[in-house]
Design a protein that fits this description.
This protein is 48% helix and 16% strand. It contains ten helices and eight strands. It has helices at 32-46, 71-81, 96-106, 126-134, 152-168, 185-193, 201-208, 231-245, 248-278, 285-318; strands spanning 18-25, 57-64, 85-90, 111-114, 139-146, 177-184, 212-218, 325-329. Helix 2 (71-81) links the parallel strand 2 and strand 3 (85-90). It binds uridine-5'-diphosphate and magnesium ion. Uridine-5'-diphosphate binds next to strand 1 and helix 3.
Amino acid sequence: MLEGTSFDVAGVGGNVPLVSIVVPVFNEQDTIARFISEIEATIASAWDEAAGDKPPCFEIIFVDDGSRDDTSRVVREFCRTNPRIKLICLSRNFGKESALSAGMRVATGDAVIPMDVDLQDPPDLLRPMIDQWRAGAQVVNARRVDRSSDTAIKRSSARAFYKVINSLADHPIEPDVGDFRLLDRAAVNALNRLGEHNRFNKGLFSWIGFQSVTLEYTRPARSAGTSKWKASKLVGLALDGVISSTTLPLRIWTAIGASIACIAFIYAGYLIVNTLVWGADTPGYASLMVAILFLGGLNLVSLGLLGEYIGRIATQVRGRPLYIISDSVGF
Ligand code: UDP
Ligand code: MG
């Protein structure tokens, strides 16, 4: 048994651990029923209670991220008949990262498992994850070994992203591990204490540390509905990831500026010697333009980069909450 957790293995002493499954949902009316029935089926079949193999208790917390369809109504219907199911509604669409944070804060389980509602995070993995947790792991990651259900563009951009972020970030993140993972109460408490606004959960998950193991799985296609991530949103998420994980991009400009200054200095020396020895040349309009445009471009890029950081500082300083809960059912 893991020291410091609040349960006994297999319910010895009558203490059954609680596992909270946190599910952010945004316009997902078509996927919810299927998700609930799959989870219920998995819980019923993965543990053989008759043989004394006791499952943990489960709660399923849906976080309605400002859906404009019938998502909230569908979940409310389930709440009435199934005591496991709980719902919090956010007052508008705050994005998956904030919705997940909201769910993690209201979850009371000894372990928390964030899951997508579209069954791309296979429920079959629940049992192995929980077994690893009961054996002592505080974080159980799930790594996609096969992303063939994603488009080629998404796969190659994901690969490029992990390469870039892992060469820059202070704390590398494991490639192809999504938000689907098991987090022990200690890890959840640590995450809940992090007050940052531009939340990039994958980065935060790796930053908190804790003893972790990684399971592997093949990511299936979406059960129904369409992906809620537009390319522009993914680019934004990637930028958030890099900027919240490292300040290296800011420092790069010092190096680039210094190198350009050195080159300019050497060039100036060459020009002076050249003028003294050969006399004044015809003025070089083209080379002058190139130098001006090049330096102007560099200036704008580095200003933009500063702006990205300063913008995030501004959001942080305003200190608004990450999300607003407008309603909750089942708590
Ligand atoms: N989601 C959310 N808020 C958003 C976008 C998505 O809560 O603004 C939820 C969505 O309902 C789903 C999960 O996040 O449960 C993953 O979304 P999706 O399947 O669209 O992402 P993908 O699997 O394509 O990365
Ligand atoms: Mg999905």
